Amino acid sequence: xxxxxxxxxxxxxxxxxxxxxxxxxxxxxxxxxxxxxxxxxxxxxxxxxxxxxxxxxxxxxxxxxxxxxxxxxxxxxxxxxxxxxxxxxxxxxxxxxxxxxxxxxxxxxxxxxxxxxxxxxxxxxxxxxxxxxxxxxxxxxxxxxxxxxxxxxxxxxxxxxxxxxxxxxxxxxxxxxxxxxxxxxxxxxxxxxxxxxxxxxxxxxxxxxxxxxxxxxxxxxxxxxxxxxxxxxxxxxxxxxxxxxxxxxxxxxxxxxxxxxxxxxxxxxxxxxxxxxxxxxxxxxxxxxxxxxxxxxxxxxxxxxxxxxxxxxxxxxxxxxxxxxxxxxxxxxxxxxxxxxxxxxxxxxxxxxxxxxxxxxxxxxxxxxxxxxxxxxxxxxxxxxxxxxxxxxxxxxxxxxxxxxxxxxxxxxxxxxxxxxxxxxxxxxxxxxxxxxxxxxxxxxxxxxxxxxxxxxxxxxxxxxxxxxxxxxxxxxxxxxxxxxxxxxxxxxxxxxxxxxxxxxxxxxxxxxxxxxxxxxxxxxxxxxxxxxxxxxxxxxxxxxxxxxxxxxxxxxxxxxxxxxxxxxxxxxxxxxxxxxxxxxxxxxxxxxxxxxxxxxxxxxxxxxxxxxxxxxxxxxxxxxxxxxxxxxxxxxxxxxxxxxxxxxxxxxxxxxxxxxxxxxxxxxxxxxxxxxxxxxxxxxxxxxxxxxxxxxxxxx
Length: 701
Prior knowledge:
mainly alpha, two-stranded antiparallel sheet, 33 helices
């Protein structure tokens, strides 16, 4: 069969959130001043063209895919228009909405531990650093756009004019700088002991009518002593200033690289957006090693080069498909289906939750969106049926740890861009391991329920829920859109009929009538469609900052020579393929305790790829390997954000139905999950062909 290739055009190179496709929660208005509100509305209007660009990309891609099957052939310049026109608009204008919604991906370990007055200092530091960086990209992006205008720059085989869209770089970053400035002013207006989150609570209509002084009194316990606040500020200042000064006073590039990595990690821990935390140390290091001209070149060209990529067009297509299905309520029927078909098994409700999670993941690739739906639907039923709270919440975590393995996986797409491998084969590579992991989880739940029946409601006088055949067939009728879309996506990619972007666009287009059908009679169709597309733009904006940061940081690492040192070090130690991969499992589990999973991927993959190539590790295989480890990072404390999300949801009395579920309970549930992905990783190491056989079939004629 003929394979339509879709090789990423990205160079080497962290959300949302950790989970970029999760529908963002409704954000309270952070601005307390009417002038700030008006400014936010004006600059927010620039996100509307980005929303239109998502719709145009979807329609254009579908029309081109269908036209290619006719004697007319492909539409002229489709790839160039998608890469150089639609994608910069979606990415760069979407950054404003991501900033306003506070959706840029952050790692905030040190921030959360600091006293509240120190947290305010960290917020201001992040605002200042982000603002200066945005101004730098604005100024030098404008100079680059003017230079390209002078020569009427074009790109691609169709000589597509790209100079007009290069103005999106200074426009997007200028708008982002304004949004950051508004945020910084609001930070300054915060009371002495309040954080952004407390201000958000204050801005919402509050039943007790609290004012700022009452907020201060209520949160006194988190302010720390004067000595502790001083120590926090001194330690952070010494590290930041010390690393910065040392980078400019040493002639050793390797030392500059290590200092840049330390500086990046510290900035990330202070709640500074990961993309900013990666970019700033990298620019400083490049300036220290190569001087002003090279640094200006990165500032001028990297934002456009990082976002103007056809391989990345698959991201908005899969995201909008997942958003449409989630917003329309189609995915809510999955739990009913799973309960009907698996409820008769020992631990059937937990088994059904895991199966439903796999179905949700196969459509949205979302850990958070899946966890939210399943926690609210499944946990109350399991608790009412006498299930142990650890098994009830653990079954949701089971599902969450497989979401990004099954196509469409945004982590897989992003990895494919970083590692420069074809998107389609990379997506298909995760299918087999993902299904195996789902099956292992389901078997594990059944075994646990047989060995310890009290954990699954056994022996408590509660009848096991059993589905009826009429209920089973009825539940099939309510979820028909999901298998249809899965079939479109998987068969389209596997047969090579369509590229990953094209099947994503087809899936997104098919999701629109499905959403309209699901919302019939509710009067919310237009609102659902609009929210799905705007949420997609905001998510893409959050990813834009990450991708730019990853590209800049990769350029920095290549100049330092640290990657070459790592390859030499591994060869000198004598590690083979198996030993090195086992070492990586331990390293990633430790990193996952302190770093966001997407950030972990983007920081480490560029460093490791040369070493893996020297050891004969397939980059497609390694994509599955690292995504499994990233899924572990999502649940592993102390960062393990999915664990905290589920814990937050189960505090709702309607969800916990009178059971107290503590954070230690959640950590015990995590321990039930951890062994199974690790076993899968071990099996993958010793049987690598089990991962790569399906992608290899795609390339056969």
